[in-house]
Design a protein that fits this description.
Layout (H helix, E strand, L loop, with lengths): L30 H11 L4 H15 L14 E9 L2 E9 L14 H4 L4 E10 L5 E6 L3 E3 L14 E4 L2 H15 L5 E4 L9 H11 L12 E5 L3 H11 L8 E5 L5 H7 L2 H4 L2 H9 L9 E7 L7 H11 L5 E6 L13 H13 L4 E3 L36
Parallel strand pairs: 4-7, 7-8, 8-9, 9-10, 10-11, 11-12
Antiparallel strand pairs: 1-2, 2-3, 3-4, 5-6
Helix pairs in contact: 1-2, 4-5, 10-11
Length: 394
């Protein structure tokens, strides 16, 4: 076990996590940072022992013995639904488990009352070789402040942002508790990643660490409603070595400002012309990609004219338009589109010269599909403070 900590180090790295309680969160640190912090704290085993403990934590799910153990929230609720490509798994974790020991025990319904939960979804995909892999959709916040009218999470409002450790523990739960190793990670769960970008970038640095989860950078996608300042900051990060192949997804959802402003308040501050200009400046490297997401809502953005205008918007960007059939939120004013309507809209896009494809609907019946995450029981609670900002890794 670690010795009593000495004076606070000069580096902010070793101050990660609630240090007043005497532990370091290995889920919020890269292996090099964790080893450095353990050496500074006088942990037994030194740097070599810390790296080995880090590897065992991520690869085997084994909590460290001679180094500080992270607090890992267990899966509180788990739902499954079938799809043609395999079971879709939605799971939640309580934010702020009380201790490393207690965190390994299931929470009762009574203990969950009033506890904030993250929501994550494991989505099956069958590749060209016929092998099933899973994409993990992670949340970066509990709730969301963006106010998109078609989104369930937006109905909650923003409750609070998640720390990097709370983001990474969603991967940990998927891999070591649910038992499914994700091949891809998409920041498309609850929250707007650009509103919590420091923690999202730190989580990505941890998830791509070769001694840990070792997720390739080109298997990670960050999604945004179109926060221009966030896209700009993320572009700066993508220009750094090791980050070139990070993917970006942008929710466009309408090809004209009037329609987009009606369903996405962000468009009033960041209209389509400004968004297109920012995307044209996005750095292009081999392996990275931008996806233009288009949630198809019956009677809102599904006409031939909408398809032609969207193709026109996408053409100079040379990016894929990903058509997502609308998944109704609770008390939705719109139904889901019919399959024939989705196919027709996709055909219109292709005929207009767009590179386009559709996203297969999975998990809709358990409120686990795109735009459906969110617990209505915790809507509109007061905002908690944002996580402490940490250095962005190079």
């Amino acid at each position: 076990m670690p010795h009593a900590p000495g004076p606070a180090p000069a580096s902010p790295v070793a101050a990660v996590g609630p240090s007043a309680e005497g532990w370091l969160d290995a889920l919020a640190l890269t292996s090099a940072e964790f080893a450095e912090a353990c050496v500074r704290a006088g942990c037994r085993g030194g740097r070599t022992g810390a790296i080995e403990a880090y590897r065992r934590l991520y690869r085997e799910g084994a909590l460290p013995v001679d180094q500080p153990a992270p607090r890992i929230a267990p899966v509180a609720r788990r739902l499954e639904s079938e799809s043609p490509e395999g079971p879709v798994v939605k799971f939640t974790q309580a934010v702020g488990a009380p201790s490393p020991a207690a965190a390994r025990q299931p929470l009762s319904v009574g203990e969950r009352d009033g506890v904030l939960e993250t929501e994550s979804v494991l989505i099956p995909m069958i590749g060209k070789k016929g092998l099933r892999t899973y994409t993990l959709c992670v949340s970066s916040q509990v709730g969301c402040a963006m106010g998109c009218t078609f989104c369930e999470t937006a109905q909650m409002g923003l409750i609070r942002s998640l720390t990097a450790g709370e983001i990474v523990q969603q991967w940990f739960a998927a891999r070591h508790e649910v038992g499914l190793a994700p091949k891809n990670i998409v920041f498309m769960g609850m929250g707007e990643p650009m509103d919590n970008l420091d923690q999202v970038l730190r989580a990505i640095a941890v998830l791509t660490d070769h001694n840990g989860a070792a997720v390739p950078m080109n298997k990670i996608t960050v999604s945004t409603v179109g926060r221009l300042d966030g896209i700009r900051r993320l572009a700066e990060q993508v220009r750094r070595p090791g980050w070139h192949r990070l993917n970006l997804a942008v929710s466009v959802n309408a090809p004209d400002d009037a329609t987009r402003s009606a369903i996405m308040p962000i468009n009033r501050a960041a209209p389509l012309a400004a968004l297109g200009e920012e995307l044209r400046r996005w750095p292009r490297f081999g392996g990275g990609a931008i996806c233009l997401e288009y949630v198809l809502i019956p009677g809102v953005n599904d006409t031939r004219e909408h398809a032609a205008a969207m193709a026109e918007f996408a053409r100079p960007l040379h990016h894929c338009v990903n058509v997502i059939p609308y998944n109704p939120r609770r008390d939705s004013p719109w139904p889901a589109p019919r399959e024939e309507d989705v196919d027709r809209f996709l055909a219109w896009l292709l005929a207009a010269g767009a590179y386009a494809k559709r996203r297969r609907t999975k998990g809709r019946e358990m409120m686990g599909a795109c735009g459906q995450l969110g617990n209505p029981e915790i809507q509109r609670k007061p905002l908690a403070p944002k996580p402490t900002s940490l250095p962005i890794l190079s």
